[in-house]
TrEMBL record:
TM region(s), chain numbering: 6-26
Protein name per its UniProtKB record: Uncharacterized protein
Region named Disordered: 32-68
Superkingdom of source: Bacteria
Compositional bias ranges of the Polar residues kind: 32-48
Low complexity bias locations: 53-64
UniProt keyword terms in alphabetical order: Membrane, Transmembrane, Transmembrane helix
Amino acid sequence: MERNKLIILIAGSVILVILLFLLIVLERAENTENSGPSTSGDNTGTELESSDTDSNTGTSNNISESAIDDSVLIESDEELRQYAQEAISNTSFNKQAEELTQETLYDHALLYQRYTFLFEDQAAEEGSAEDDARWMSLEIKAWYDLAQEKYGFSYEPEDLAAFVENDSDTEEETSTRLLLEELASINDNLYYRQLEFHYLRPYIWATIKDDVAKENGEDPDDDLTYLYYDIDQQVMEKLMESHPELIDTN
């Protein structure tokens, strides 16, 4: 029995020594690794260089794309100007007309229709541009007549131009702006007549809406959209009475 205990103690001691030896070896190995040169800085530098390269590449691509976009926009503007010039040369109108009339509205509605067909690359059906221009010009003139008769509306072309410039709701599309610029380069009369075709109706509403609101017991600062459509309905009714041929009987 005593001999067995001794053997167990010796074996335990040997195992303990082996474990201590292994622990010392592992600890030294760990210290050696910690005291060695660090490569993390080099890796970081490599990562930064890679990041810089990617960033520079991205910036270069953005610059190239921006240059392409600008080139496309410039080319588009030039094309629109050519279309505007072509439409102007193919449309007959009184270049000296100083006041709004049914005829000036029709001429400028027709001009815009032809211009639109050009830059939208559409083939107009025979008579469609003229029919559309006639309808649009009659509608605008009916708005003008109603506002003049019921609310004493009057205006100067310069006031309309100021309204368009200052009102955010009438921001000009590029195509419209370029056509207006081409007309202005010929004379102010053509510029103002085209301006009337595009913006006279919203200008009329902005001018008379307070009177319309009071007439209907509404606060002018409230949403008056329904009153706008009420005026528009009155305009349509008058238009149909005076031009029954416009009603589609098909």
